[in-house]
Design a protein that fits this description.
The complex is a heterodimer of chains A (about 150) and B (about 550). With about 150 residues, chain A is α+β, with helices and mostly antiparallel strands. In chain A, about 15% of the residues lie in helices and about 50% in strands. In chain A, a hairpin with a 5-residue loop joins strand 4 and strand 5. Classes of the chains: A alpha+beta (about 150), B alpha+beta (about 550). Chains A and B meet through strand 6, strand 7 and strand 8 of A and strand 5 and helix 11 of B.
């Protein structure tokens, strides 16, 4: 059996670099796409204030904000500001003991992630994350939450 | 200074005047709590069976042995298996109903007066460990049944121990609180199961013993002795109390009373003499009167003489205005003795335990042989159900009420087509050919007719029955019900969309199938939450999820 090898000529190199650039641009674009304001989409039920949440992602991972009660006049408005935000791949342990790599949206202050959300789906103007949410009784649960881009 | 000394003396004078000082001589007596019912003497063997809890105990890191040894009866002989009394413990499964990191937010102002929020996390659990203790006779009669641990217990996981209070157990991050729980999870489980098992064993055993067994008891009593330099006959009081205490201490629960009354006669005579000497209404004498009455009540309580104990207890009245709590306790003990002595056949609380070692446990019933396998059921003839039904012959046409005959337990149409009949209210048979029907309904089933492609080209259509699977207002999920003998479709589920004339097949042949999220979501633009849920992939392109989406659209609010 003969193994044929080809020297890496200029054309192949260009093709490789082009693919690399494309991949890089795609990655950067997909990371940048989160920039803007996102509003939670959920059934209000008896706790309309609990679902009145907005996320504001600054450009290029700079500044982020979680705003509560901004769309409903009856809700108390408050917000938490963060110096940075970033998407990182992290390992999480499932109940079965299996470890999976997932994308995390980290809201950072001084390089420490203060709020984390698992990025589950990113579909155009819709975002599905797993985040720890208040259940209205002074306790929290991990819930899937949908956000819609509003600006 | 003089004034202070005078005031001090004035305050002490009433103390000196109030009378005699008393000293308590405390001691314990032993006796049996008598059962309220009894089992025949021949039925005094018992066995303990923890097999049904065994796996759960081992799962929590515990063994059966410790709990088996707790299940101990006094007047019964323990046998390895199948006693006259059979104690069975089951359950002990640790059921965790809730386990989560809880966020605690607290607002505060920093040095510059800015309002900030401090966030801490605790890890909280809710669990239950139901344990059942059933005590049966060998004949199967349930003698005692106790279930504990069914209600859920809330606990916060602390750093080292479980604490139900909010002190401790707070962490900076949810991950740290969770990690702490993971490190302590096994221990928490073990402690919870152990606690529930102990509670169940204690509850079951106490209930059985109070009803059928002798329970060894100890009771604190006291004799009063006047003390101090001016105490009258202090030495005689002390000597008599010492004699009486010695009598009381020599009593054993499993040793019948014998000459105790004679040994107690001296002290009793002395205290009766003293009682007669003192006036309970005199401030200086009432303590001595109280001491004599207390000692006489106690002495007769030890001797189980209910009448005399009651007689002297009656002299301990509130009018004495002293030691109210002690008097009440002594009277309670006398009442307890009276209650026990009133039980049928009861004469004493001190009994010689019978020798049960020769008792033979009952013979376990022989295992029953499994019944012979039932003969196969004979082939059944086809049965029919006749139920109320309606048909509508054409769109916007009148409803024709009547009855339909259906072959019981068999699918609709196809090979049973000729067996299914519809009659109107006049008894006239009406054809169920889909070419002539627009809608058919009976029970919870509703069928509508739609034209479906036929043949290999798919260009020719013929009317077919479609069962309404889910009706979500304008959009309906339909399932094809084959009517014709040659109708064996691959795709049977369709969405009926009012704006579109044709049905949307739920299969890859549908163009929407490829770009499912966006195209399926477009059907629910009037329902923002459902629209968003479909966009992010809550409902996939399969019948189950489509049905779920329609049910959500129908039943849940859109905002």
């Amino acid at each position: 059996m003969r193994i044929i090898t080809y020297p890496l000529n200029n054309y192949s190199l260009m093709k490789f670099l082009f693919t690399l650039c494309l991949l890089l641009v795609t990655t950067l674009l997909s990371a940048q796409k989160l920039d803007g304001t996102w509003e939670m989409v959920a059934r209000k039920g008896n706790t309309p204030c609990a679902v009145d949440v907005r996320l504001v992602f600054g450009k290029n991972g700079a500044t982020a904000q979680i705003i509560y009660g901004s769309t409903n006049d009856d809700c108390e408005q408050s917000s938490t500001a963060f110096a940075n935000w970033a998407i990182a791949k992290e390992e999480i342990k499932r109940r079965s003991g299996k470890t999976d790599k997932v994308k995390m949206i980290n809201f950072l202050n001084e390089e420490e992630a203060e709020v984390q959300m698992i990025l589950m789906e990113y579909e155009g103007d819709y975002l599905l994350v797993m985040a720890e949410m208040y259940d209205g009784y002074d306790s929290t649960t991990n819930r899937k939450v949908i956000f819609k881009r509003v600006e | 200074m003089r004034l202070f000394t005078l005031l001090l003396l004035c305050s002490l004078i009433p103390v000196f005047l109030s009378g005699q000082k008393l000293k308590d001589e405390k001691f314990q007596i032993e006796y049996f709590r008598l059962p309220t019912a009894s089992l025949p003497d021949s039925m005094h063997t018992y066995s303990v069976d923890l097999a049904k809890a065994g796996d759960n105990l081992r799962d929590a890191g515990l063994t059966e042995t410790a709990y088996a040894s707790m299940l101990k009866l006094t007047d019964f002989k323990k046998v390895p298996t199948y006693g006259h009394v059979q104690i069975k413990v089951s359950g002990a499964k640790y059921k965790l109903s809730s386990s989560k990191a809880t966020k605690h937010s607290e607002k505060y102002k920093d040095d510059e007066g800015n309002e900030k929020t401090r966030v801490q996390y605790s890890y909280d659990l809710k669990y239950s460990v139901p344990v059942s203790v059933v005590i049966r006779s060998h004949t199967g009669e349930v003698l005692i049944e106790k279930i504990v641990g069914t209600s859920s217990v809330s606990q916060r996981v602390g750093k080292r121990t479980i604490s139900s209070s909010s002190v401790g157990g707070m962490y900076k991050t949810a991950a740290a609180a969770t990690e702490n729980y993971k490190n302590n999870a096994d221990r928490i489980k073990k402690e919870a199961v152990d606690k529930s098992m102990r509670a169940a064993v204690a509850a079951g055993l106490d209930a059985f013993r109070s009803k059928y067994d002798l329970t060894p008891q100890k009771q604190w009593l006291l004799f009063e002795i006047p003390s101090g330099k001016k105490a009258p006959q202090a030495e005689a009081w002390l000597a008599n109390a010492t004699t009486a205490v010695a009598v009381a201490k020599s009593l054993k629960a499993n040793q019948p009373l014998s000459n105790e009354a004679d040994r107690m006669a001296g002290p009793i005579a002395f205290w009766e003499d003293q009682l007669g000497k003192y006036d309970p209404t005199d401030k200086k004498q009432k303590k001595l009167f109280y001491a004599a009455a207390n000692n006489l009540t106690t002495a007769y309580l030890i001797l189980e003489d209910v009448e005399n104990a009651k007689k002297y207890a009656a002299k301990l009245t509130d009018a004495l205005k002293m030691k109210g709590y002690e008097m009440a306790q002594l009277k309670e003990k006398v009442a307890g003795l009276e209650k026990q002595m009133a039980l049928p056949g009861a004469t004493t609380r001190h009994l010689q335990l019978q020798d049960r070692s020769a008792l033979v446990p009952p013979t376990p019933p022989a295992p029953t042989t499994a019944p012979a396998a039932a003969a196969p059921a004979p082939a059944k003839l086809m049965s029919f159900d006749t139920i109320a039904a309606y048909i509508i012959k054409e769109k916007d046409g009148d409803k024709i009420e009547g009855t339909i005959r259906l072959p019981g337990g068999r699918p609709l149409f196809k090979r049973y087509r000729s067996d299914i009949k519809f009659w109107d209210q006049d008894g006239e048979a009406v054809s169920l050919n889909p070419e002539k029907v627009h809608e058919l309904g009976f029970g919870n089933t509703k069928l509508v007719v739609h034209g479906r492609p036929t043949g290999t080209t798919g260009l020719k259509k013929r009317a077919s029955y479609m069962k309404i699977d889910t009706d979500a207002g304008p959009i309906r999920l339909l399932t094809l019900v084959p009517y014709y003998a040659d109708q064996s479709p691959v795709v049977t589920e369709f969405l009926e969309i009012p704006e579109e004339d044709k049905l949307m097949p739920l299969a890859f042949t549908n163009a929407r199938w490829i770009n499912w999220r966006k195209s399926f979501a477009e059907l629910f633009t009037d329902c923002p939450v459902l629209y968003a849920e479909i966009r992010v992939g809550y409902y996939k392109n399969n019948v189950k999820d489509v049905r779920k989406a329609l049910q959500t659209y129908k039943n849940k609010p859109c905002e």
